[in-house]
Amino acid sequence: MNLLILIPARYGSTRFPGKPLAKIHGKSMLSRVIEAAQLAMKGYEDIDLIVASDNEEIIKHAAEHGAAAILTPESCKTGTDRAIAAVRQLPEYPDQVISLQGDVPLIPVDVIRKMIDTMKQNPHLDVVTPVHNLSWDDLDRLREAKKETPFSGTTVIMDEDERAVWFSKAILPTIRKEKELRQEMNMSPVWRHIGLYGYRVDILEKFTLLGESFYEKLEGLEQLRLLENKIGITCVPVDIPQGALLSGIDTLEDLARAEALLQRQEQEKQPRHA
């Protein structure tokens, strides 16, 4: 086994119990993520897909949608902890693991494929994760969303080699003289993180052996554990349609926004009559 797409799907979320099974526009969140992974895998012979969960109902649901599943302990604190708990049950370790959270139902297939291609072409990289540049309109939408759910949506600052410098639930960077910049720049200087990670399996194991870090606790962002322990994260820029909702579904408000977005997209596809 060379590369494994692993979908952690926790039932016992404090803020949203059972959310992988919650439906968005008639389909469960988990089934949408499984479908995106299955489409991204097409054309490759050395990629497997497994769902890792703490709940038998989710295990059954995954099987109904064509995905193998592994039962993992309820004690797993993060999706990454759940991912390595599943890997340790496999008869053979993969070389690389993509941890695709079960609460990102609107993840585009092209984003997963770009992650796969990046990892296959650069097997030496420790960790890779996708990011996308926000338009000014998308930045405005993110600011509005944070008025209701301030801890939804993560931004990232990168260096010139596209390695992550920092992630935050705050919007980084702070922008001075924004009015002038909006006239000078077609896109905003803000990059939004998409909650998808690719690891070398040895780095994944190392991650789970490290204690929860200081800023990880403050922000609630497990990727900060990597940066605080000097493990590099390479960002993969991806193109995303304006208005897309790509962050994880953490609350009922997030669920409502996802539902509204899918309804709007469906209406836009309907033929217009004179």
Describe the structure.
The protein has a single domain (3-269), classed as Spore Coat Polysaccharide Biosynthesis Protein SpsA, Chain A (Alpha-Beta Complex), CATH 3.90.550.10. The chain is 38% helix and 23% strand. The chain has helices spanning 29-41, 56-64, 79-87, 109-121, 136-148, 178-184, 201-209, 214-219, 223-228, 252-269, and strands at 3-9, 23-24, 27-28, 47-53, 68-71, 96-100, 127-135, 154-158, 164-168, 187-193, 196-200, 233-237. Helix 1 (29-41) crosses helix 4 (109-121). The chain is globular and about 60 Å long. The termini are far apart. 40% of the residues are buried. The mean pLDDT is 89.
Structural class: alpha/beta
- What's the tally of helices? 10
- Low-confidence stretches at least 5 residues in length (pLDDT < 50)? none
Number of domains: 1
The mean pLDDT is 89
Describe what is shown at a glance.
This protein is α/β, with parallel strands linked by helices. Helices cover 38% and strands 23% of the residues. The chain is globular and about 60 Å long.
List keywords for this structure.
23% strand; globular; two-stranded antiparallel ribbon; 274 residues; 10 helices; 12 strands; Spore Coat Polysaccharide Biosynthesis Protein SpsA, Chain A; 10-stranded mixed β-sheet; alpha/beta
List the topology elements.
Blueprint: E1 3-9, E2 23-24, E3 27-28, H1 29-41, E4 47-53, H2 56-64, E5 68-71, H3 79-87, E6 96-100, H4 109-121, E7 127-135, H5 136-148, E8 154-158, E9 164-168, H6 178-184, E10 187-193, E11 196-200, H7 201-209, H8 214-219, H9 223-228, E12 233-237, H10 252-269
Parallel strand pairs: 1-4, 1-6, 4-5, 7-12
Antiparallel strand pairs: 2-3, 6-11, 7-10, 7-11, 8-9, 8-10
Helix pairs in contact: 1-4, 3-7
